[in-house]
Specification:
By secondary structure, the protein is mainly α. 75% of the residues lie in helices and 0% in strands. The radius of gyration is 12 Å and the shape is globular.
Length: 83
């Protein structure tokens, strides 16, 4: 399983949880993803893949839910720093 797939699955799993450490665990999954790709361009591709996988998985669901907004904003902020 690729690091991007692992990160996507982790985030999808976390979307079903209601514990207080979900935000920390999302950030941790993204940190692991970034650590897996030392090359900046590979990191950007992996993060974009995770973001698109998450957006596709939310199709038909409430995309404006707090968790979905948090994931979307968090990944986009990281992408803006990496680029």
């Amino acid at each position: 399983m690729t690091p991007a797939t692992r990160c996507s699955r982790t985030i999808e799993h976390l979307s079903a949880l209601t514990t207080s450490d979900v935000a920390h665990r999302v950030v941790q999954a993204l940190d692991e993803l970034e650590d897996a790709y030392p090359d900046r361009s590979d990191r950007v591709i992996a993060m974009e893949d995770v973001l698109q996988t998450f957006v596709r998985s939310r199709a038909g669901k409430e995309r404006k839910a707090p968790f979905a907004r948090f994931v979307y904003v968090t990944i986009n902020r990281r992408l803006s720093v990496v680029r």
